[in-house]
Structures are given as structure tokens and as C-alpha cells.
Amino acid sequence: KLDDVKKSKVPSAHCILNDGTVILTPPAERIKHLSEIPSPYLDGRLDEFFDGTLMPLVQTNRGCPFTCTFCVEGVGYYNKINKYCHEKISLELDYIGKKMKSIREKGGRNDLFIADSNFGMYKEDLAVARELAKTQEKYGWPNYINVATGKNVKHRILETSKIIGGALRLSGSVQSLDPKVQENIKRKNISAEGLMDLALSASEIGANSYSEIILGLPGDSKKAHFNTIKTVIEAGFNSLYLFQLMILPGSEMSTLESVEKYGMNIKYRILPRCYGNFKVKGEEVVSAEIEQICVSSNTLSYDDYLSCRSLHLIITLFYNDGIFSSLLKFFSMKKLSIWRWIEILKDLEYGKDFQEIADQFTNATRNELWENPNDLWDFVRKEGVVKKYIDGELGNNLLFTYKSMAIVRAVDDLSDLAHEASKKILEENDINSEENKNFVAECVNYHRNSVKNIFSKLNEISKSDFKYNIKGFIDDVNAKDISDYEYDVKQEIKFALNENQKEVILNFIKVFGASTKGISRILSRVYINKLFRSGITSDTGEIIKDNRVTEKNISISGLQN
Questions:
Q1: Minimal CA–CA distance to 229: which of 319, 350, 299?
Q2: CA–CA separation, 374 and 295 (whole Å)
Q3: Measured on CA atoms in the order 420, 421, 424, 425, is the torsion positive or negative?
Q4: Tell me, what's the pLDDT at 556?
Q5: 525 with 492: CB under 8 angstroms?
Q6: pLDDT tens column, 477-521
Q7: CA 61/CA 114 separation, integer angstroms
């Protein structure tokens, strides 16, 4: 009854009645003690979802103390942090670990998603980390944790990472380092300096680190965006996650006032993996979530937006995940600018295979976005369209998709580009001695052999002659002079996957498939550096590590390509 609806005033339930009356009720109070919520894990309600394909998700606290305007949790409603009790988290992690041990033994995935907004920033997170260390020892789970670590309290985040070991990647999510942009998005209470220091500290404890940067924030420009990327790279983060600005409903930035103030030009696309055909009360219903993307503003032109996205592809391929780690290490040792190397890469003439991929990426960047959400919705409802999204023909993460294509189809072109850019930066800095030129050539050759065919020819062994111990150089944290890694005589090096790498790759392919879509999803979940072939000496079958020879039994039998 209309009168009942008008009187009930259910919190957080907004509606428009048939007579045009708008009912806007106050927001519901947040749950203060999260342990009041029954655990769906301990109740057994999620048992059917431990299928080897899906990833378990837990949350140890809710809320965020920061006020970023692009984030829904930046509004005051979410600023207080509410937490679960330790006993409940401990029981959940042990329950999940036991289940995941069985899953892993059958070839399923072995990771965890923690849905906290700032994991590692609070003292309670240390206790959670210790529980995870227990499950790692007891069940071998998790070997990878997907989580956003905290934006302040660096020392506690580092301690949390140490406890969990290599399962946790540290995030220094700067979004933008431009002072005007930071002011516009109300991010002044986050220590940018502390986030940058995190990369160096992560390197010192052997942890992986990444930074998130958003293109198109209010006040952003091509110059400001490039400067942020340059600064983050020079700080030493292992990877950069480069995002387009999504206008999230409920965030301060989504208000009409904010959109008009910054002249944001908004386009629309289907949110990746948020679509499907469902049955509701016996009827087939098409569902898809449409998101808003800012592609230009009063400080960022559309052409500059496209230029920034092209740079994103270069960084994703040549910088992230250590695909050319020995080159980056050599540049750092010689005090050469890695950013300058990337600038050179961006402007070189590409080989045929990679040029085709780069052109496809630019076209996809232009064509994935729609001017009108109603036109997009009409398109999605056409017969067979949602299936195309499900099958991966439409709607994929473009950076991971085209990174996958390049790794599968254009390793030679990538290697040639890396080599050409390396020669140019040596020349620019007048250090293009024969020794340096030979060393960077061998670095490129090493990575070419390491990366090629890692998702298709698992038993393939490639061979090449080397004057330098490139593997030893990569692994030596105290590398000082490349002459320390020169062999007395040239060595023939074999490149092979070990059994553990094969198992991990096959398990991922079993879950996600070996298509471009499948590999792109694998790359979004794994530190791919761990899957590269290692160089082993041909005569002894022993792996070169830390400039020393250590025994390692490499078996390559029993698996088909």
C-alpha cells in the first residue's frame, strides 16, 4: 500500500511511487561490530564454491579514513573503520586453508583475495598476517594474496609483508603526484613521500611492489600524468597499474557539480566480467553493468588521453613484471634514466607484429567506449551479444589483453625494440663501449629466450651462447660491475621451465584457458617473472644463481607441449 510505503521509511531505500512521490530515507546505520555477521564459510554455505576456479575472499575490516573524491569510500559515511574479531578471522582462514589444500592438490588455484581497503595499516593486521603465515605452513595456502595495502604507516605494512613472505605485493597507490590534482581529489592527508619510500623498502626486504596511477583525474594533463609515471618509475616500484578514471556512482566526483567544474567528457562501456543471461521468475533476463569513463577534461584533450594510453601499453610490456629486468638493473647501476629508455621505446619504429598489436590496441581504446549509455544498453540486449562478452570477443581489459598478444606473438619484436632503445641510451650518455654494448645485447638475448613460448611450448628448450652470467647479475643484490659476471670462456646456456613452473602454468591454463582472454586473466593474477625460463649451463645442467653454481635437478619429461 502506498501509505504503508510512505510511513515505513526503510533506511537506505529510495523509490519513486506511481503517483510521482519521491521517497528518500536516511542512510542505514553501518554495522559497528562486524563479527555479528554469521560466517558463510564456517556455516558451510560456500562449500560448493570451492571448485578450483573461484578464489576465496575475506574481509577483516570495513571503511577507509581517507577522503579521495574518486572513491565511494571517500564520503563521510565510510570514514570510520569497523572490524571483525580476531577469533572469527582465525577460524575462517583455517577453514579455507584446509579446503584450498585439497583444491591445490587437484590442480586448482591457490590464492586469496582480501577485500580490506588498507591492509597492513592497522595493528590488528599483524595478527591476521600471523594467521596467514600459519595456514601457509600448515596447508601451503595462500601462495598469492590480492589486496590493497595501506596508504600510510609504512613500517607496519612492511612488517606485515615480512610475516607473509612473498605472497603479498606492496601497493603504493599514488594515483597522481601533481599537487593541483591531489588538492582537487582531496588526497592531501596521504603521505606521497611515504608511498614512494615503500618501493625502496620493499626492494630491501625482497618484496614485490606496485603503484596505481589514474589517468584523467581533475586537473590532470599529459605532462602531469607523464611526470607522475616518471617519478614512480624512478622510485623503483616493480610494476605500475595504469587506470582510466572511472566515475563511480556515489562518489563525490560523480556529482553533476564536479563533472561540470572540471569539464569531464564521459563515455560508457560494459564493466569487464559484469554481465550475463539470467532466469528471473522463469524469464530470461540480460544483465550488464555499465560504467562511466572520463576521456578528456578542461586540462586533458582526447588526443592527449590516447597518447597516455599508448604509453600505458609500453610500460605494461617493457617495465612491468621484470620482463627485461636485467636491462633495468643495468641502467640503475649505471645511473641511467629508465624513464628516458621508455621515452625512446615509445618513439621507435615498431616491428610488423608489434605494430599490428599496437594499432589494434589504439583502435580498441577508441571503439570500446560509447557516447550514449542507452545505445550501449540496446546493443547489449541484442541476441548473442552477451555471449560475445562471456566468450571474450568483447569487453576485456585492454592492457592485459594486448600484453598477452605481444608475449605470445611478438617477443622477437619486443626484444629488438628493447635492444635498439638500449643502444640509443648508451649513445646519449656516451657510455657505448664495446663491453656495455655486448652486455645489453646479451641481456636482451637472455630475456628473449626466457619469455618466448611460456604458455604454449612448456617442454621447449632453447640454447644460446653467453659471455656473461646474466642470471647471476639479475640475482645478485650487490651487483656493482658487469665484469664480475664475465665467464672465462663462453657458455652455452639452455632455457627450460622447471617442474614447479609447469605445474603453475598448467593449473592457470586449466582455470582460465590458453586463449588470449585466458592468458590476459592469468597475467592479471600472477607475477609473470616467476614463470620465465631459467638459464642453465649445457654441460652440467646446473642453474647459475647469485654468480655461483648451485645444484638443481631439472626434469622435462612427462609433459606434452
A1: 319
A2: 19
A3: negative
A4: 23
A5: no
A6: 888 899 999 999 999 999 998 888 888 888 888 888 888 778 887
A7: 10
